[in-house]
Write a structure and sequence with these properties.
single chain; alpha+beta; binds zinc ion
């Protein structure tokens, strides 16, 4: 909401819509839908081991799960395959959902 205060069509002040998942311009009637950034956090496992990554530049000294944003036209499973490949060089298989 902080980044979306004025209508891109008429420059009028916009307000939250009555149903809460969009913004509304009472001046021109335009509905502005909030941008979604779907992302994945896969747990890459091998037997009872969980794969963690760390940054190569050593300025950040903690381990983390692989994460990534889904690109336009990409499935969530495709995001998992791409991010795992990009960050580890491994090929992700047997992709299953744990929780939503
Ligand atoms: Zn407007």
């Amino acid at each position: 909401m902080r980044n979306n205060q004025f209508c891109g069509s008429c420059k009028g002040k916009i307000i939250p819509s009555s149903w809460g998942r969009a913004l509304f311009c009472p001046h021109c009637g335009r509905t502005i839908y909030l941008r979604l950034n779907p992302a994945i956090i896969p747990a890459v496992t091998w037997n009872d081991k969980l794969l963690l990554t760390c940054y190569a530049d050593h300025h950040i000294s903690y381990y983390a799960l692989i994460v990534g944003f889904t690109e336009i036209g990409e499935t969530l499973e495709g995001t998992v395959r791409r991010e795992v490949k990009e960050e580890t060089g491994l090929s992700a298989k047997d992709i299953r959902y744990y929780k939503f």
